[in-house]
Task: inverse folding
């Protein structure tokens, strides 16, 4: 099985393109725009997970824990 590594400093667009299963996970954590294809194509190409947490008031540690629970290794 290929390792699933997530770099929190990559854009939401890149991460959700590479790992589409992240769309529902991130939406559930409070990234409401991630389900909207237009938002992913525009804002998602500039916003990182780390920056999004800061802008949206989402606990970064909660995001890291949710990613780890889904089998991702968090980098950054």
Result:
């Amino acid at each position: 099985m290929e390792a699933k590594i997530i770099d929190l400093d990559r854009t939401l667009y890149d991460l959700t393109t590479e790992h589409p299963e992240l769309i529902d996970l991130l939406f559930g954590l409070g990234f409401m725009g991630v389900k909207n294809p237009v938002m992913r194509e525009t804002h998602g190409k500039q916003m990182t997970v780390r920056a999004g947490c800061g802008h949206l008031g989402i606990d970064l540690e909660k995001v890291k824990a949710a990613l780890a629970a889904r089998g991702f290794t968090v980098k950054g």
Notes: The first strand starts at residue 4 and ends at 7. The chain has a mean pLDDT of 94. Residues 60-69 form the longest helix (10 residues).
